[in-house]
Amino acid sequence: MPMSPRLLRPRQTGFSPKSISGLVGWWDASVTSSLAQLSTGSTAVSADNDPVGYWADQSGNGRNLTQATNNNRPTYNTNVINGRPVINFDGLNDALLASFTLTQPIHYFLAWRFDSSYVSGNPRAFDGATGNSMSFFRSSSSQLALFAGTSSRTANVSDAEATAFNVMEIQANRSSTNLLYNGANRNGNTGDIGTNAPNGIYLGVFGNGFSNPGDVSFAEVLIYSRILESAESARVRKYLGSKYGISTT
After folding, report:
1. Is the dihedral of CA 84, 97, 25, 55 positive or negative?
2. CA angle centred on 118, ends 114 and 120, rounded to 5°
3. Considering the domain boundaries, does residue 85 fall inside one?
4. pTM higher than 0.90
5. Maximum distance among all Cα pairs of the chain, rounded to whole angstroms
6. 109 inside domain
7. Which tens digits make up the pLDDT trace of 98-153?
8. How many domains is the chain partitioned into structurally?
9. Does residue 176 sit in helix, strand or coil?
10. What is the DSSP letter of 33?
């Protein structure tokens, strides 16, 4: 009697961002064990509104985000998106920092949102280890922007879209840069972002000091040291979209 095709079918397993080569940083707020209140990694985060001074890198590279100053620590907020927590930055002085060798091309994925409507200025989602080394920010009520030393590459994202949880994909590669919102290309212009090497990631602030803070919430952040192939990008988007209940293409 022939074996049922169902028995021959490989068992499905969960996707891990590590299965795609080039992962250099991965921070997941739903991994509670990766969070601590102090920058040394001590004092567990467990309750809503606990401060976050340490967010461990899940990539295996040890690129842990830290904040030594108590007043500059973001907070852990439970049950925010699809039953999962986020790390919330207050838009005043909160930041988490990690410095490490990182040069273009770079592929970022964010499961995130801005928490309030645009008012003015250029509030940051993230930057590199120095100002404008890889700065991603709101430039108006209808655009996000990426800058790395030469000109801004903009993404046409409305205020309502920016303040809703989404999967933002940033393919940073000079004049070949692309900005995708839930899988859709939202490039608002062309041009060269510049050659700056971010050499790390500073969440929530401008890289040179604590200026231009953003009121942002991050559920997950992924960084790859190359521009992924389209099929690989789709796998990462599907993983994030399914996990956080976000519709992606």
Report:
1. negative
2. 130
3. no
4. yes
5. 72
6. yes
7. 999 999 999 999 999 999 999 999 999 999 999 999 999 999 999 999 999 999 99
8. 1
9. helix
10. G
The contacts of residue 104 (CB under 8 Å, 6+ apart) are 148, 172, 173, 174, 195, 197
pLDDT at 136: 98
**Where residue 53 falls among pLDDT bands split at 50, 70, 90?**
very high
Could you tell me if residue 157 is inside a domain? Answer: yes
SS3 18: helix
Q: What is the dihedral of CA 81, 98, 100, 43, to 10 degrees?
A: -100
Name the residue among 30, 209, 37, 177 with its Cα closest to residue 107.
Answer: 177
As a whole number of angstroms, the distance between CA 11 and CA 50 comes to 39
What is the token pair recorded at 147? 């800058």
Return the amino acid letter for 228. L
- The reply to whether 164 falls in a domain is yes
- Quote the distance between the C-alpha of residue 105 and its chain's center: 16
Task: Give the span between the Cα atoms of 213 and 134, in whole angstroms.
Answer: 15
Q: Which structural domain, as residue segments, surrounds residue 186?
A: 20-30+96-244
Looking at residue 183, which CATH number applies to its domain?
Answer: 2.60.120.200
- Percentages helix, strand, coil for the chain (3-state, rounded to 5) are 15, 35, 50
